[in-house]
Amino acid sequence: MADLQQTGSISELVAGYDTYSEAGELVAEAAADAPASTPTCAAATISWLGSQLTVKTYKEGC
Asked: Which branch of life, at top level (predicted)?
């Protein structure tokens, strides 16, 4: 029941807007640059794939 009340409240809030801001009109900047996480993500993915292959080989045999 709480979900219906919350959804109703959100609908009422949004219904009052006739126009919305364009992305260029918003003045927002990040507090810090995003870290370069691609090498970390790639290493984690390769490690995970390797572990999946090892588990499959162990469970099903060569």
From this structure: Bacteria
